[in-house]
UniProtKB/TrEMBL annotation:
Residues 1-22 form the signal peptide. It comes from Thalictrum thalictroides. This is Inositol-1,4,5-trisphosphate 5-phosphatase. PANTHER family: OS01G0793500 PROTEIN, OS09G0392000 PROTEIN. Keywords: Signal. It comes from the Eukaryota.
Length: 405
């Protein structure tokens, strides 16, 4: 037993000390981790992988007229893929028979050849996507592999593949790394101390954020008389469903606050809060102007443990703040839907790619397309209005009355 671990140690030393080009070994140290004792593997795995490793890396698109693409994988350093259509099924098609309708459109075959594996034990994991489907496959042998698409979901998918092909994404961490990254990302959405620590660790690692534990009491009293119109509220949630969402939102946008609001005082000196995302009795998220006392009570009851920073305007800016105009605008917006689409304008719809690696345009478009089909009502809030604004249209994407782009 001791001799076996000594041999593993020597191999790891050679691999880590001199690199793969210095001395070719049949496996890499991280390929051995699953067979080593848990006390050794988990600390290493936690350092090797993180939630970001769940994101696929775009390697190219394959279509009927685009030829083949080549790239270097995580396991196999030589990879080449191409795509061919399959002949459609001939014969009469009943409008009520969805399976026959799909088969009448035909299908396709993805050919993916792998070579030059860096070790005997590694494998590469791939995701293949169109706006109408996401499928995956993994390869651990050096040869030509095939992935068959029996039929297209509808004629629109067939036309999409003809024009744009099928997007190919590599999971950079392979099968083991992807599973470990999934274990790393799930706690972000846990409404527990474990989830809170996970969110803090993620922000520290990927955004360089620093957190200092405050002395108690952690809830400071705020006197409404000390707050003025235009004072700013910055919120950050670090646990639970919204805490996990805000953590990922902060990472992709570069912001350190997940939510903001503004303070407004009326003619009688009563303090109000204007904010987006307030849920009404119908469950809709809308823009509201609510009394400070009500807002503060809801914030204290929020189990996502929000951190709230009250940032007063500088005296010079406060003197210039037009409270009358601010109130007029707030009243005109009250009751309207929450502006999810503003995220698209500020983050995605920019001149240059505004993504932290490994995000890229292809991955974002694929995610948007699939999300639109899975949760159309939520997608409508997220980007339909933004697309209408960009295209100068007023169409409903779910009634097929939009211009083709």
């Amino acid at each position: 037993m001791m001799n076996r671990f000594m041999m593993l140690f020597i191999w790891c030393f050679v691999e880590l000390g001199f690199g793969v080009n210095g001395f070719k070994v049949p496996f890499r140290p991280k390929d051995l981790l699953p067979i080593l004792p848990k006390e050794l593997t988990w600390p290493v795995l936690n350092n090797l992988h993180s939630a970001v490793d769940l994101l696929p890396s775009y390697v190219g698109s394959i279509g009927p007229n685009s030829g083949s693409i080549q790239w270097k994988g995580s396991c196999f350093y030589g990879n080449e893929a191409r795509f061919e259509f399959k002949n459609p099924v001939q014969g009469d098609v009943n409008d009520d028979d969805d399976d026959k309708k799909k088969k009448s459109l035909g299908g396709g075959v993805i050919y993916l050849e792998t070579s030059a594996a860096h070790s005997w034990t590694c494998m590469d994991l791939y995701v293949f996507a169109t706006p109408y489907r996401v499928t995956w496959d993994y390869y651990f042998s050096a040869r030509e592999h095939t992935l068959e698409i029996e039929s297209w979901e509808e004629s629109a998918e067939l036309e999409y593949v003809k024009q744009h092909g099928i997007s190919v994404f590599l999971m950079p961490s392979g099968m083991l790394g992807t599973l470990m990254s999934l274990i790393d990302v799930l706690p972000l959405f846990s409404n527990s101390a474990w989830g809170q620590k996970s969110n803090i660790a993620f922000l520290q690692k990927h955004m360089g954020a620093s957190f200092e534990k405050r002395a108690k009491p952690w809830v400071a009293p705020i006197n409404p008389d000390d707050v003025h119109s235009g004072d700013f509220l910055a919120l950050s949630k670090i646990r639970g469903r919204w805490g996990g969402f805000e953590t990922l939102e902060k990472w992709v946008t570069g912001a350190f606050a997940g939510h903001t609001a503004v303070c407004l005082k009326d003619e009688d000196g009563k303090l109000w809060v204007g904010e987006s995302g307030h849920e009404n009795e119908k469950g809709e998220e809308i823009i509201v102007v609510i009394p400070w006392e009500e807002w503060w009570e809801l914030t204290l009851k929020d189990n996502s443990n929000p951190h709230v920073a009250l940032l007063p305007l500088h005296p010079e800016l406060r003197a210039k703040f037009n409270a009358t105009a601010a109130w007029a605008y707030a009243r005109s917006m009250s009751g309207k839907p929450y502006g999810y689409h503003n995220m698209i304008f500020s983050w995605i719809d920019t001149i240059a790619e505004n993504y932290p690696p490994p995000l890229d345009t292809h991955l974002v478009i694929s995610a948007m397309s699939m999300w639109t089909r899975v949760q159309p009502s939520y997608a409508a809030n997220m980007w339909n209005e933004a697309l209408n604004k960009r295209l100068g249209t007023e169409c409903n994407l779910y009634k097929d009355d939009c211009p083709k782009v």
